[in-house]
Structures are given as structure tokens and as C-alpha cells.
Amino acid sequence: MRIVIFANGRMDWPFEIQNDDFIIAADGGARHCLDRQIRPDIVIGDMDSLSATDIARLETDGAEIITYPTRKDYTDLELALRKAQELEGDEVLLLGALGARWDQTIANLLLPSAYTSMCIRLLDGPQEISFLRGGGELKIIGNPGDTVSLIPLGGDARSVTTQNLEYPLNGESLVFGSSRGVSNVLTAESARVTLQEGMLLCVVIHQ
Q1: Which CATH code of 2.40.160.10, 2.60.120.320, 3.30.750.24, 3.40.1170.60 fits the domain covering 130-205?
Q2: Is 38 in contact with 57 (CB distance < 8 Å)?
Q3: In the prediction, which pLDDT does 32 show?
Q4: What's the pLDDT tens digit per position in 26-43?
């Protein structure tokens, strides 16, 4: 099941919703749905970013409203991710996860690294972010000329090998905090990245 989560950040459209997508709105992310006449299946959070009129409209449209207290351990977006995990979504797309607040944006970027059972991607217009964990392989789909950046998280990424990138890596390490993996270039319609140890945040910017 593909789950699409709308967060309450900046939304760079367009994005195509499929008929069988399960839609979760994280609090104010529901306003993106209302603006685009998309019916969320679930709205979750402390509801501090929605008016009573918004909530009534969402309920009328058939959305399940799951309300949490303002004083809580998790952000609204993480509550949405936890619900996606409970629903056993195998692919999760996060929209509207970026915004003006650096703390929220950084937390949102790192959230997928904590949920290893799901394939999670963050989308923002022509940009997408995914994660690759040690022992895994990532297939990147795009067009020649697209920008690909591989950024290590939580420590060095060891034994990184790439195919169809302009600046190849052959079993090499990317050091945590270094910019070496930034601004590579796709040379075909697909590329592959394998990683033995560590974690990579992978950014693709489509031309």
C-alpha cells in the first residue's frame, strides 16, 4: 500500500495522487488537501493549525480525525509516520515536509531514518530525498543531467559503489560532514548505489 502524507510545510506542486493512495494529513497539512480538493483518509495531530470550520469540513468529507494533546512527545508528522507504520504501508511519500523553521525541517528530513520498515521518500517539486542503509542498494530513476547528491548520516558511509553517475565511487567511503558526495550527475535514465556500512541521505534534483 502506498501512503501519502501531507505535512504542514511548503508545498511545491504538482504531484499526482493515485486513486488507491491512502492519504494521511498531519494537522495543518490537511489545508493542502482542502485547497486541492483531496480527501484525506486520516487527519492526525493536535489540531492547532486547523480551524473548527476546517475540521468540520474534513469530517463531512469522511476523514477520520485523530486528536492528540498539544503537550506530546512527537511532532504531528512523526505521529503520521507512526500511523503509516501501524497501517503497514510499504511505500510512504512525504509532501510539505520542508519549511521556514530550520529545526522542524531538519527533524523532518531525518525522521525517515528512524522508520526502517518502510520505504520513505520526501518530495518537493523537482527534488526528492530517500535513504540508503548499509547492506542495501538504491535505484535512482531520472534523466541524464539530473543532480544526485549522496550525504552520509550518523557517521561515515563505507564501501559506496555507484553506477551511471558522472563521478563514480568504487567501494569508497564518504566521510560524515564532508561535501564530497554532493552534486554528482546522472548519466543515464537510471543509476544504482550500493552501500556496505552506514547510511546515506540521497537527494535527486530533476531537471
Answers
A1: 2.60.120.320
A2: no
A3: 95
A4: 999 999 999 999 999 999
